[in-house]
């Protein structure tokens, strides 16, 4: 399927996909249990919490009930500071579906109120408040704002909450945002992380259902229906046991999308019709209109243009999918295109004119050309009608004018021939200029690639030379000077033992102690120069050993690894080890931190390093005019492995460093050199 068809869909799907309700699939049991809490003699805090959960359950189905439970919950929460913060959060949930401004204000109040509580549960609620606040500002601040809030606020708070299920949920939401910005590869990566967590931590849950369905959407919009099919089957296996679930419409939407992707249009219509019935039942206006848009696309593929246009007119009349200028422009453009297919040029011109008002100046010239084209066809159609009327009224005049018309047509054809010839000449000249420009661009690109290759060779030579010199110095220290010092120590010890009158000499014992400390220090230096643990046991064990080496009473180091493979080439393992060694050296020397977190993970040929400390932090602007050998070496190694380096630091709040490496790059350089 051509990817052009996903453009309007991606613009229209966002709000509902990001507003998924975290309600257990067994909804009746869930609601009954909450009602039992309200009828019991339990504490007011428990009843307030039950009321708030019912606010979220009814926010799509019945806003009157939702508000009733909100008011009751607020009354019960009045004497509990935490539940007062929770009241702001669920007030935002109540407004979520119909008043974005009030919902955003409520979620912001909730986030500020939760910041006063340093508990895992409060961190989790704060993450949810930040996320919902970002979604409510989608139309005014855009996807960049949502993405930044998720990465900088939501995910860190979710990690502090320590709930893997919650973290997986926000991975799914991030993948939805990336999908709606056409970054399908990244979206699939985050969604797969969510699926892997949920399959272990929360199988057959609502969160896992959403993750499966999100994967279906991502792969369908990316044209990879073969990957979407098994995820759709897994989603159906979960939800089929709960036929009354409020999430069933979302399943049917993805089922209709899958059938549309594989061009099973009739099956797509059947799924859409099922979803429309349930979306109406559960008052899911956004999703109901998206089902109609899906039917429009199916009718368009079937060339049933009259049905397709009527659906678009209904969508425009409803207004739910026209909340933003971009979405409205999409509907107008589709109405113009469908009217054109119906040869209704007047309507096509009308809708294209409305579309032009909403589009920005970048597309102004192209849009004007289309409008002129439609207007010309419309005027031509009107002229043909007038000519036909005149010919019917006066056939004799038409016969007399035939020769004149023939002459005029010949003249027009001659002029057109000249214009076509001139156009071909101009087009050929333009093509020649473009070809010459392209050759120049290719030449410059080749020069740039040669420079990059040369730079990589120089970097590799420098790094190899540095490691060889480290190895040589380490072996000389260990085998030469280390052996000599150890020999001197043994000799002195033996001599003192053989001379009983000297065995108690304090100065002699002090000298022997100094020799012992010197040997230990020499071995430590040799170990740093040449990590034997790395050579014997591999990268993961070496990094763990390095963390234990730097750990002390006043410094705690948390080391985490994920999927590190032993097949990484030794040179790359050594480079990664040196990077981490440099990070520890800088943190211990400058940060004055109490806690350090080192996280290393591998995804295929990409290796990730995250290094965080809670030290004094610094102003990152200082790095622009300051050069240090340690940071330069670190960046050289990252550049050599075609990696990415990101540093974030706030004074008195610590430093975070993220490194992404392509661990296949060393092999590529080696092959090119050979």
UniProtKB/TrEMBL annotation:
Domain Histidine kinase: 472-665
Catalytic activity: ATP + protein L-histidine = ADP + protein N-phospho-L-histidine
Keywords, in A-Z order: ATP-binding, Kinase, Membrane, Nucleotide-binding, Phosphoprotein, Signal, Transferase, Transmembrane, Transmembrane helix, Two-component regulatory system
Enzyme Commission identifier(s): 2.7.13.3
Top EC category: transferase
Gene Ontology molecular functions: kinase activity
Transmembrane segments: 406-429
Range of residues in the leader sequence: 1-19
Superkingdom as given in the UniProt entry: Bacteria
Protein name: histidine kinase
């Amino acid at each position: 399927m051509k990817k052009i068809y996903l453009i309007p869909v991606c613009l229209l799907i966002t709000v509902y996909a990001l507003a998924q309700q975290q309600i257990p699939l067994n909804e009746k049991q869930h609601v009954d249990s909450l009602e039992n809490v309200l009828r019991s003699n339990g504490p007011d805090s428990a009843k307030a919490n039950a009321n708030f959960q019912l606010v979220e359950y009814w926010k799509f189905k019945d806003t009157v009930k939702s508000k009733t439970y909100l008011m009751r919950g607020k009354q019960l929460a009045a004497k509990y500071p935490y539940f007062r913060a929770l009241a702001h959060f669920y007030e935002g949930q109540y407004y979520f579906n119909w008043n974005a401004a009030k919902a955003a204000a409520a979620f912001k109040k909730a986030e500020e109120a939760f910041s006063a509580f340093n508990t895992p549960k409060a961190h989790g609620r704060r993450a949810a408040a930040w996320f919902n606040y970002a979604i409510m500002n989608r139309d005014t601040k855009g996807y960049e704002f949502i993405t930044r809030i998720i990465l900088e606020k939501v995910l860190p708070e979710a990690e502090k909450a320590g709930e893997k299920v919650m973290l997986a949920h926000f991975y799914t939401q991030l993948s939805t945002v990336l999908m709606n910005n056409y970054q399908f590869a990244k979206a699939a990566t985050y969604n797969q992380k969510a699926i892997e967590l949920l399959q272990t931590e929360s199988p057959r849950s609502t969160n896992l259902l959403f993750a499966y369905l999100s994967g279906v959407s991502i792969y369908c919009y990316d044209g990879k229906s073969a990957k979407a099919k098994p995820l759709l089957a897994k989603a159906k296996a979960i939800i089929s046991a709960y036929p009354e679930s409020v999430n069933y419409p979302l399943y049917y939407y993805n089922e209709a999308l899958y059938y549309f992707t594989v061009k099973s249009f009739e099956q797509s219509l059947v799924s859409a019709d099922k979803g429309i019935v349930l979306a109406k039942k559960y008052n899911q206006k956004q999703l109901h209109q998206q089902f109609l848009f899906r039917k429009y696309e199916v009718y368009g593929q079937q060339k049933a243009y009259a049905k397709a246009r009527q659906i678009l007119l209904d969508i425009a009349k409803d207004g739910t999918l026209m909340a933003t200028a971009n979405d409205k422009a999409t509907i107008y453009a589709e109405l113009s295109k469908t009217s054109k297919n119906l040869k209704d040029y007047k309507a096509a011109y009308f809708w294209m004119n409305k579309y032009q008002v909403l589009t920005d100046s970048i597309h102004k010239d192209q849009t004007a050309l289309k409008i002129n084209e439609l207007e010309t066809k419309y005027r031509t159609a009107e002229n043909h009608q007038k000519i036909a009327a005149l010919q019917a009224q006066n056939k004799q005049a038409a016969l007399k004018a035939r020769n004149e018309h023939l002459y005029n047509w010949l003249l027009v054809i001659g002029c057109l021939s000249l214009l076509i010839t001139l156009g071909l000449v101009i087009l050929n000249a333009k093509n020649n200029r473009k070809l010459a420009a392209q050759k120049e661009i290719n030449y410059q690109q080749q020069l740039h690639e040669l420079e990059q290759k040369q730079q990589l060779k120089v970097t590799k030579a420098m790094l190899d030379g540095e490691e060889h010199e480290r190895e040589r110095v380490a072996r000389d220290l260990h085998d030469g000077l280390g052996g000599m010092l150890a020999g001197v120590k043994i000799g002195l010890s033996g001599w003192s033992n053989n001379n009983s009158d000297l065995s108690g000499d304090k100065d002699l014992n002090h000298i022997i102690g100094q020799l012992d400390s010197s040997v230990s220090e020499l071995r430590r230096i040799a170990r740093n120069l040449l990590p034997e643990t790395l050579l014997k046991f591999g990268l993961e064990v070496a990094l763990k050993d390095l963390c234990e080496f730097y750990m002390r009473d006043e410094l705690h180091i948390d080391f985490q690894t994920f999927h590190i493979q032993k097949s990484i080439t030794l040179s790359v393992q050594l480079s990664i080890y040196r990077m981490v060694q440099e990070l520890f050296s800088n943190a211990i020397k400058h940060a004055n931190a109490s806690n350090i977190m080192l996280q290393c993970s591998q995804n295929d040929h990409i290796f990730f390093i995250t290094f965080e400390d809670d030290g004094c932090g610094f102003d990152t602007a200082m790095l622009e005019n300051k050069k240090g050998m340690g940071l330069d070496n670190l960046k050289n190694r990252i550049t050599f492995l075609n990696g990415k380096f990101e540093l974030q630091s706030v004074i008195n709040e610590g430093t975070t460093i993220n490194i992404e490496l392509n661990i296949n790059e060393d092999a590529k350089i080696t092959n090119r050199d050979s």
